[in-house]
Amino acid sequence: MKNTILSIIVMLVASIPLLAQNVAQKKYELPELHTIKVITLSPSYSCRGNDQSQGYGDTALFLSEHSKQRRGVPDLLFNGACGSEDFFAPSTAGDDFSLIADLGAKVSLKEISARRAFSVKLITSYAEYSKFVKVAKVELNHTYAVLWNESDKRGLLVFKVTEYVPNEKVVLEYAVKAYQIMPNNRIQSKGFDFDKSNN
């Protein structure tokens, strides 16, 4: 009898972290990983009419309630001034060091793992590594990888442009490969400034 009670207690204690994780995931409505979804972003953020100028509207991808409500900062922005080239921006605010890489036109979204986002051909060669930059030009049929590095979020997104009308709309197939939020109790060095030089 003691062994049975002890076994039940051990199982309950062992399940507490899993229950806490499930509660946190529901609270912040975190995205499902490795599942391809489709979204239309329209129009480009900087080519909206006056009636569309409040917030991001449909110009941005928000993957969690945390991004949408608490931060008001999208996970990916479709942007471009009217008549100019459109681009994707994964970084839109303050201490955001997020980057994006264009993986090319002949890359299947279904085959991109987290490892392949950094080297599509899995070859250890500088020429074959993905080149991550601040923004990336919108290109039809190209696949991209977004690496988030923010004070309260980090993760990896891969997506492919399946339809594109300049300044008007872009249709994406996307899959989230990693997504973590750190809403409280961040420990960080004080004094960050995007423009400050060194002493």
Characterize the overall form.
Answer: globular
Residues in β-strands, percent: 25-35%
Number of domains: 1
State Rg: 20 Å
Mean pLDDT: 84
The topology string of helices and strands comes to HEEHEEEHEEEE
In total, the number of strands is 9
Helix run count? 3
Estimated structural class: alpha+beta
Q: Provide the helix percentage.
A: 10-25%
Distance between the termini: 69 Å
List segments where confidence is low: pLDDT < 50 over at least 5 consecutive residues. 18-26
How would you describe this structure to a colleague?
This protein is of the alpha+beta class. The protein has one domain (32-181). Helix content is 20%, strand content 28%. It has 3 helices and 9 strands. A 5-stranded antiparallel β-sheet has the order 1-9-8-7-5. It is globular. The protein starts with a helix and ends in an 18-residue tail after the last strand. Mean pLDDT is 84; it is low at 18-26.
